[in-house]
Amino acid sequence: FTFHSLQAKMSRPVQARRLEGIDKNIWVEFVKLAATYSKVNLGQGFPDFPAPDFLREAMMRALSGGNHMLHQYTRAFGHPPLVKVLAQFFEKLLGRDLDPMTNVMVTVGAYQALFCCFQALVDEGDEVIIIEPFFDCYEPMVKMAGGTPVFVPLRPNPPKDGKLMSSADWQLDPAELASKFSERTKAIVLNSPNNPLGKVFSRGELGLIAELCVKHNVLCISDEVYEWLVYDGKQHIRIASLQGMWERTVIIGSAGKTFSATGWKVGWVVGPDRLLQHLRTVHQNSVYHCATIAQEAVAQGFQRELKLYGKPESYFVQLPKELQQKRDWLVQSLDGVGMKPIIPEGTYFLVADISPFKSDVPDVPNSDEPYDSRFAKWMVKNKGLAAIPLSAFYSEAHKNNYTNFIRFCFAKEEATLKAASDILQKWKQEKTS
Question: Please, which domain of life does this record's source organism belong to (predicted)?
Answer without folding.
Answer: Eukaryota
